Amino acid sequence: MRHSTELSDYAFEPLQPTTVVLPPAAVDWAVQICQQVSPEQQWMTFLRALALRGVQQWLEDGASGLTLTYDPAQPPGSEVQGTVNGFRLCIVPQGTLSDGQVPLPQRTLEDAHTFAHLYLLVEVREEADQVTILGGLRRDRLLAQQDLLLRHPNGTSLIPVACFDTAPEEILLYLNCLSPAQLETGGQLPQAASPTQEAINVWRWLGDRLDTLANTVTSTLTWALLPPLVMSPALRSSHGPAETLATVLRQLEPAGVVIPPTARGAYTDLQRAGVPLRLCALTWTHLEGPQPEWCLLLVLGPTPGEQILPGTRLVVRDAETILADSTLSPGSGANHLYAQVFGTWEEAFRVSVTLPDGATLSWPPFVFHPEA
Q1: Worst-scoring range by mean pLDDT, 13-17, 263-267, 283-287?
Q2: CA distance 143 to 149
Q3: 16 three-state secondary structure
Q4: Where would I find the beta strands (DSSP E) of 187-321?
Q5: What is the pTM of this model?
Q6: Which tens digit of pLDDT belongs to each residue from 31-51?
Q7: How far apart are CA 119 and CA 142, in angstroms?
Q8: In which domain of life is the source organism classified (predicted)?
Q9: How confident is the model at residue 5 (pLDDT cuts 50, 70, 90)?
Q10: How far is Cα 95 from Cα 267, in angstroms, rounded to an integer?
């Protein structure tokens, strides 16, 4: 079941079945409770208070008569604001969805004791005393889509509004029929690589196969295999991702970047995360040293018709240190960033892209496991 309103359209009509009109007492409480915080926080606290009372009324008016428990003496913050049948709810009020991104406090994802089980996206029309429950997002599904999260230094993560695709009717079903444990997939988001952590095994790319993680529905920023590169411009006949990458790599040849014919790769578009960028990755083996090594070459550029913004940063790390760090400088005239690292077959590399506004997008570790 899906809500008839498409979240991606960002157009929500009033007085939908999930719209409630707040009584004067609820509005008065919101006005009073927001006076307890600093002036610069009062407006958002007011919107959260209206959203909280709207969700409370929506639950109580339902056939099951669910009760939202919260402390009416405390101003509602941006994290978990209340509980229903043991489910911790994070209610996110939205006055507008024009940017297509929803901010979520990182503590609601990462804190092992206070994480949110359910996120509710709520439209607040304070001028009409109306609150509309737009959709929801389960914690387990959010964790499965964590590669869409843009992490900001201010403690929030941005996720596309389209991820809130759980209809309000389904939310009521979860609150009535499920247990909170069914929406928990671990207390914290993974922060560092470990031998058992999910990883992107690029060894499979050499056999023109996607690794299990890159080919699964839990990897929302999906990867697509690139065909073997044709480096000669005279032999290229189209202008797809492989041809665009080959053009960039030719420009890197004077810097000593040589791509062997055995190299294989894949690419992922970041547009689903609201970022007009494309990340290409190539890998091959290097067997001339005392022990076999593998290479990971990354090229970050814009999607067709876009430009990469100055200040965009591409970073590659191993378990201990930063191995490659490239930032697009203003006025450089470049439209791509690249990084190249070598490691033994036991080594893993973590890749992150930081945008000029400080938001960061990261991937599971890249590994090279021939035995897998």
Answers
A1: 13-17
A2: 10
A3: coil
A4: 200-201, 224-225, 264-269, 277-286, 293-302, 313-317
A5: 0.61
A6: 999 999 999 999 999 999 999
A7: 9
A8: Bacteria
A9: very low
A10: 36
